[in-house]
């Protein structure tokens, strides 16, 4: 009896595998169907770029072909890979530090009238100041190592996150606040069950905005003072009249930014799957 039951369960499981595979392939086909304009645009863009160089007689030292960028960067792959790692470490460390510090500080400012009247206007003023202007100062104070680059990335990411966190934690509707108090829930329980979930969508606006600009801070800091990293690499090869290698560095910076933004978007879908922005994106 047990053997027969085991065999039946095995048959059912094996019968379900093709069904699950068909469902997965169906979802993949649906995503590709929605993404074909994006794919077609970029394929057309790079094809036009490839052949327009010959059509218009553009010199290679002005604008190389995409195929030349790939072949020349392959010869310098090890150095490009190492510099990508360096810039990636600077970006991730600065971004994570900004999230860890900005969210609790934004929460404190949202609940404190004193902080809202003092620190909040100061943060708004600093946000209007180009953070890149501080890069020469940090490099002259701290040298050409990792720390000044991480600080610049931190500054670029910190203010969008903290300002959106203040808005998120301070924008709970009064009706919802009254309802929570009417249920008799304590402050901690009401925060974890109501205020924190309600604040997460606006917080992720700041997280994604900061993710877009994180590599910008790392690259500019490397432009100003560094001996490694993709920003340093682009500056050196541009000075040597090698736009093919400069474009390779630019493409890798783009991939870094897309990877960080994609990770934040994935975390958003896991944390707030109920939000309308996440449900529409599916």
Structure summarized in a few sentences:
The chain is an all-alpha fold.
CATH topology-level fold name of the largest domain:
MetI-like fold
Discrete helix count = 11
CATH class of the largest domain: Mainly Alpha
Tell me which CATH architecture of the largest domain applies here: Orthogonal Bundle
Order of helices and strands: HHHHHHHHHHH
Helix fraction, binned, reads over 70%
* Relevant CATH superfamily of the largest domain: MetI-like
In total, the number of domains comes to: 2
How many beta-strand elements? 0
Report the span from N to C terminus: 45 Å
Query: Beta-strand percentage?
Result: under 5%
Which term fits the overall shape?
flat
Average pLDDT: 83
Largest sheet: none
Instruction: Look at the helices and sheets and give the structural class.
Output: mainly alpha
Please give the radius of gyration in angstroms. Answer: 25 Å
Low-confidence stretches: none
Question: What does this 3D model show about the protein?
Answer:
It is a single chain. This protein has about 280 residues and is mostly helical. It has helices at about 1-55, 65-75, 75-110, 115-125, 135-140, 145-170, 175-180, 185-225, 230-240, 245-270, 275-280. It is about 85% helix and about 0% strand. Helix 3 (about 75-110) runs antiparallel to helix 4 (about 115-125).
């Amino acid at each position: 009896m047990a053997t027969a039951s085991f065999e039946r369960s095995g048959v059912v499981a094996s019968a379900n595998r093709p069904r699950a595979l068909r469902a997965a392939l169906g979802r993949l086909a649906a995503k590709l169907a929605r993404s074909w304009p994006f794919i077609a645009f970029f394929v057309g863009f790079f094809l036009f770029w490839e052949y327009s160089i010959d059509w218009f007689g553009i010199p290679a030292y002005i604008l190389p072909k995409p195929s030349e960028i790939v072949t020349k960067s392959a010869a310098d792959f090890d150095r490009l890979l190492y510099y990508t790692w360096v810039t990636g470490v600077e970006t991730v460390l600065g971004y994570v530090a900004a999230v860890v510090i900005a969210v609790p500080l934004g929460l404190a400012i949202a609940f404190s009238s004193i902080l809202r009247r003092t620190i909040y206007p100061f943060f708004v003023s600093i946000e209007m100041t180009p953070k890149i202007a501080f890069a020469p100062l940090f490099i002259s104070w701290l040298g050409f190592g990792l720390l000044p680059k991480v600080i610049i990335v931190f500054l670029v990411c910190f203010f969008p996150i903290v300002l959106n966190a203040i808005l998120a934690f301070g924008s709970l509707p009064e009706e919802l606040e009254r309802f929570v108090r009417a249920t008799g829930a304590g402050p901690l329980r009401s925060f974890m069950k109501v205020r924190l979930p309600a604040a997460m969508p606006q917080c992720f606006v700041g997280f994604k905005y900061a993710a877009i600009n994180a590599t910008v801070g790392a690259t500019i800091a490397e432009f100003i003072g560094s001996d490694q990293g993709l920003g340093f690499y682009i500056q050196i090869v541009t000075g040597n009249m090698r736009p093919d290698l400069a474009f390779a560095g630019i493409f890798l910076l783009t991939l870094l930014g897309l990877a960080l933004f994609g990770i934040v978007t994935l975390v958003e879908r896991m944390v707030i799957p109920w939000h309308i922005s996440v449900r529409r994106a599916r």
